[in-house]
Amino acid sequence: SGYAQHGHGKEALQLVEKMQQEGLTLDHFTFIGVLSACNHVGLLDEGCYYFNSMHCDHNISPAGAHYTCMVDLLGRAGWLDDAEDFVKKMTIQPAAVVLMALLGACRVHGNVELAKHTAECLLELEPQNAAAFVLLSN
Q: Which of 35, 51, 60, 122 has the smallest count of CB within 10 Å of its CB?
């Protein structure tokens, strides 16, 4: 996580690979750090790989923070349709923070229609959440 926050995402991934080579077990916290690292430096392919590996190779079910990282990663890359599909296919109810990540990406990439739909979903989930109105107005 520290590597990622300072723009050294590849180093973070190298550290994870070294941990695996040493026989250490990766847990859901490790994957949050890995996905955050990928997100901070735009490593889309690597993020997708580790998200899938989490379940397939490590038998870890994704939690809200994992989903949020992935939606943010896809959104930052401009893959808004994929981010929307990802949200629709989540195995848990999307939390407000997941929808906020998608809404923020819509704002950055100028996708007004998806932003409106996402804001509606967010307001259904949390009617008191003013952030949806603020992001939508910008």
A: 60
The pLDDT-based confidence of 131 (bands split at 50, 70, 90) is confident
Nearest to 92 by CA among 65, 52, 113: 65
CB atoms near residue 48 (< 10 Å): 17
DSSP letter assigned to residue 127: T
pLDDT reading at 13 higher than 80: yes
Instruction: Fill in the amino acid letter for 114.
Output: L
Of 108, 96, 83, 86, whose CA–CA distance to 132 is shortest?
A: 96
Tokens found for residue 66: 């994992």
Residue 12, CA distances (Å) to 28, 51, 61, 81, 113 in order: 15, 15, 22, 28, 36
- Report the C-alpha gap between 88 and 59 in whole angstroms: 22
